[in-house]
Amino acid sequence: MKIWLFALVTLVSQASLADVLDVKLHYVGPSDGSVWLGVQQGLSEANLQGQFLGQTYSVQTVTVDELAKLDSVTALLLATDSEQILSIAQSEQFSGVPVFNLNSGDDALRSACVANLLSITASNKMKQDAEAQMLKKNPESNAHAQGWHEDFRKFAASQLNSRFTKAHGVIMDDDSWAGWAAVKLLSDTVARTQSMDAGVMLNYLKNDIAFDGQKGAGSTFRDTGQLRQLVLMVENKKIVAEAPLRGVKGGLDSLGLRTCK
């Protein structure tokens, strides 16, 4: 009986190993600093979850020149200047691949409406609109808009901040949140689709994802490629409000370019 059970467990384990999805991501950008630390945090958490789902995750840093030599790409994580981001996303080679903008707030990346370009970080216009809402409510305000803050606590944000600081010894900022969120978006997509096919993933990200990035559940992408998200209003290093402010029409779509149409 014991021998039979051992054999059964072995067969199950071997079958599980055969079905493991080995997800490799490619990253262009500095291999230090905030974005990179966020990506590493995302990888750590994706692999922890992946232990139970038969998935492993890794990231390979590449230069722009090395990108052209790649035969197969699941997703690209970019932390470079807006011209390079746009050029890569618009290239024929990566036209069907999810390309993530992790650091540029350039509004031109959103208004270009590139079908496979997904911007995680809040755009410049989103922050400007948030500050305008704040000034309309309080003309004396000196608050500025941020995508993330070390003292944000709602939606389990405090736990994310704590995990990040414990792992890396620094606070999570806008860029590190974007790096973490991109990997989490991808790992959530793989978990739900059970696929590493770039086209399948891109379709799911654009049409079906309801993302919980510790900024409120159910975040989705606009057709501009921008991730809908709240923006934090910060004054004297403290969070004083969240945008969109209460009572503003349009909700999350009151911040930034709403649509390509």
> Given the helix and strand composition, which structural class is it?
alpha/beta
Largest sheet: 5 strands, parallel
Helices, by number, come to 9
In the predicted model, the low-confidence regions spanning at least 5 consecutive residues are: 1-18
Rg, nearest Å: 20 Å
CATH homologous superfamily of one domain - what is it?
Answer: Response regulator
What order do the SSEs take from the amino end to the carboxyl end, as H and E? HEHEHEHEHEHEHHHEE
Averaged pLDDT, please? 93
Short recap of the structure:
With 261 residues, the protein is α/β, with parallel strands linked by helices. The chain contains nine helices and eight strands. The chain has a domain of 178 residues: 3-Layer(aba) Sandwich (Rossmann fold), CATH 3.40.50.2300.
Secondary structure elements and their pairing?
Blueprint: H1 2-18, E1 21-28, H2 33-53, E2 55-61, H3 64-67, E3 76-78, H4 82-90, E4 99-101, H5 107-111, E5 117-119, H6 124-137, E6 144-146, H7 157-168, H8 174-193, H9 198-207, E7 231-235, E8 238-243
Describe the structure.
The chain is built from nine helices and eight strands. The chain is an alpha/beta fold and 261 residues long. The chain has a domain at 2-122 and 173-229: Response regulator (Rossmann fold, 3-Layer(aba) Sandwich). The strands form two sheets. The chain has a five-stranded parallel β-sheet with strand order 2-1-3-4-5, with helices on both faces. It has a three-stranded antiparallel β-sheet with strand order 6-7-8, with helices on one face. α2 (33-53) packs parallel to α8 (174-193) and α8 (174-193) packs across α9 (198-207). The longest helix has 21 residues, at 33-53. It is globular and about 55 Å long.
